[in-house]
Amino acid sequence: MMSRQSQQGVALLTILLMVVMATILASSLLARQQRIVRETAVMTRQNQAMQYALGGESFLMALLSADEKSSGDTDTLQEVWAKPSPPYPVEDGVVMGRLIDQSGKFNLNNLYHDGAVDEKALDFFKRLLDQVGLPPEVAEAVLDWQDPDDTVTGASGAEDSFYLGMQPSRLAANRPFNSIEELKQVRGFEDPESFDAIRKYVCALPAFAPVNINTADLPVLTAIAPDLDLPAVNDWRNERDSQRKPLDDVAKLWQIAAFSSVDEKMRGDLSPFLIVKSQYYQAQIKVMLSERYRYLTSEIYRQGEQISVYQRSWAPFPPELKEP
Fold first, then answer.
1. How does pLDDT run across 1-35, given as a tens digit for each residue?
2. What is the rounded (10 degree) CA torsion for 249, 251, 253, 258?
3. If 0-12 CB within 10 Å is exposed, 13-18 middle and 19+ buried, where does residue 257 land?
C-alpha cells in the first residue's frame, strides 16, 4: 500500500513539474513574441519616418525646380525656397524642412583644385578669417589638410609630422574636405570657439564653386577684396535684402559705392569666384513620429533644370546647428 502511494506521489510531482515547465515555456514564447512585435513596430516606424524624410527632400527639390523656372538668372534669400517650410502634419507626427544656400559661402575646397594651389582663393579665405576674428595664417593649415603632398605651407601650416604629435594622433587627410566638421581636426580650429566663428560662412563642396553675391553674408562680402569699408558693405547688403533687388551681373557689383574702390586687376582676379545664381544647396529635414525623431541632411546640386542629390546623411544635426 505504501509503495503504491509513493508511486502516485512521484507521478503527481512529475505532472506538476511538467505543468510548471510548460507554463515557463509558454511565458517565454509569449514574451519573445511580444518583443518581436515591438521590434517590428519600431522598424516599421523607422522605415515610415525615413520615407517621410525622403518625401520632404523631394518637396524641397521641387521648390528648387520651380524657382529655376521663375527666378531667371539670379537667386536671392527672398525667394520661396529660402523660407523655412511650414511643419507638415502626418499621422502621429510632423515633417519639417528647410533649404540652406551653400553657394553664398566660401568653399574650402577652392583652396586646392585641378592639381594646384589656388593662391587667389587662399587670399580670399585669409581675408574671411580676418573678418571673423581668426588669424589669417591658419588658412595655411586648411590648405595642407587637403593638398596631397607632405610639404608644410608657411609657418602656420601642418602636415602629418604635426598631427602625429597630437592627442589623439592622426594624419592629414590629403584630400578635399567632405564636410566642414573636418575643420575641427585642423590646426587652428581645435577649440570650439574658432570653429563656431567660421562655420556659418564656409562649406565643403565637391568641386570648385564661386560665391553668389546675392546670398552671401556680410563677412563673405567684406572678404571679397582687401580694405573694403565694412559699414558701406553692410549698408549695401541691407539694401540688397530689403529692396529685393538682386544683381543680375557680377560686373554691376563694382558700380556700387562699397566696392567701387576695387581696381581693375583685382576685379579680373575675382571674376572666377563670384556669381549671381546659386548651384549648391543643403536640405535639412526633421521628422517626428510618436515622439521620436529622424534626421536627413541632403547635399543638392542644381544645374539648370537638372537637380540631383550627391550626398545624404542620416545623422542628427550637429548640436551647434539650429534645427528647423
1. 556 666 666 677 777 777 777 777 777 777 777 67
2. -170
3. exposed
